[in-house]
Amino acid sequence: MSDLAILGGNPVRTKPFSPWPQYRQSDIERIVRTVESRHWGGFPYPTPLATEFCQGFAELQGAKYALPVVNGTVSITVSLQVAGVGFGDEVIVPAFTWDGTATAVLAMGAVPVFADVDPDTYCLDVESVRKAITPRTKAIVPVHLAMRFTDMDALMELARAHNLKVIEDCAHAHGGAYKGKGAGSIGDIGSFSLQESKLMTSGEGGLLTTNSLEYYEALQTVINCGRASLTDEFGRRMIGLNYRMTDLQIALLVGQLEMLPELREKRARHADLLTSLLQGVPGVRTLPAQAAITQPTIYTYVFQYRPEPGTPAPHRDLFVAAIAAEGIPCDGRFYEAVYKSDLFYATPENCGQLAVGRDEPVDYSKCCCPVSERAAYEESVWLFQFELIGEEEDVCDVARAIGKIGSQLEKLSQQDPSLAGVKAMGRAQRARFERKKNY
Ligand SMILES: Cc1ncc(COP(=O)(O)O)c(C=O)c1O
């Protein structure tokens, strides 16, 4: 019998990794105090508790202002609205990201235009963005994906030259910095998700950052049913809905913010250790270091599955399933090329903006972003941040498991690919991990 756990052998690890989310006794006490205060909601907006928390978060990201909002998808829609993106306008987004980056654009009546990602960072490729700009383009949404950044200097220069707004999707980048500037403080507005798997979480939730008082005020208006902001210096009147976060959630976030720096250092240290341990493992290419990152933050540890051309090797999904079977939570199809995803249901019939003012409606079946497709379906391997917040021994187990699989690629290539449950991989596998979270 093989020693590979996926073939019935003993797994490298049976011990659970660190639980996520993390909380402390002080979080429970703060929640109790909030319950007892009877101020549970988010009105008046922003509440005193939210204002104090947001000052701390803005400081962490090096931005002037921060605001809470219901989640990290609405934080993108409200950013687009405030930035002046309207019906039929085009917004450039990466093809390799969570679907919500693009569906938020659709929800605002605008047209997502997909640009490809860089093969070494999996973040927006600036040359691909340049080619995607048309007279209809109004904004760009770079995503600081997983543990890297887009070349933000080049992107900002391009955006300013074409008078385009930049909304940074920082759903993975709490506490991260590029050339000394915090994520969300470089473009016009930064959008953060606080969904349960994220580096800071209130179960669900989102945060916005900006250096512009005009945008700060307008965001308050859009999030708070159209009401004037507290300062109202710019007097912008806009349609708003109720997108307020509750004080019960803010009470959780205070502790999350306090814990972030220590966890961030630990993840970064353990990510470096993992990178060094993975050198030379067959089939594994770690992402090249990015010198521009002055404060790393690791939402997921991503590496590339690149077996030696011409040597027998299994599909990426079987490679990932074999690692997972060793007791190491791991995913392959974590994200799709969004234009191919079932969740990106964009047709001229249900999204009128794809047809209006055009000879031919936008047809996403014609999209082709080869780097994104390779990343999504063949190459990227995702490990989760909670694997990096425990002991060094946890990281050594992760490396041992990957090394074990890497050294048996040929044997694995002879197995039935359905072992990986190839069709069901990705989201289903992730859901399984989420349920068992701590194995
Ligand atoms: C890159 C990216 N953008 C946007 C979002 C949307 O955030 P939320 O789930 O809080 O709506 C997520 C969350 O998964 C994400 O990963």
CATH level 3 topology of one domain: Aspartate Aminotransferase, domain 2
**Cross-sheet strand order for the largest sheet:** 1-9-8-5-4-2-3
Bound molecules: pyridoxal-5'-phosphate
User: How much strand content do the residues show?
Assistant: 5-15%
Q: Please report the total strand number as a whole number.
A: 14
**Alpha carbon gyration radius:** 22 Å
Mean pLDDT: 95
CATH 4th-level superfamily of one domain: Type I PLP-dependent aspartate aminotransferase-like (Major domain)
Low-confidence stretches: 432-439
**Backbone structural class:** alpha/beta
Largest sheet: 7 strands, mixed
Query: What form results from the Cα inertia axes?
Result: globular
Percent helix among the residues?
25-40%
Provide the CATH top-level class of one domain. Answer: Alpha Beta
Helix count from the secondary structure assignment: 13
CATH architecture classification name of one domain: 3-Layer(aba) Sandwich
Give the end-to-end Cα distance, rounded to a whole number of Å. 25 Å
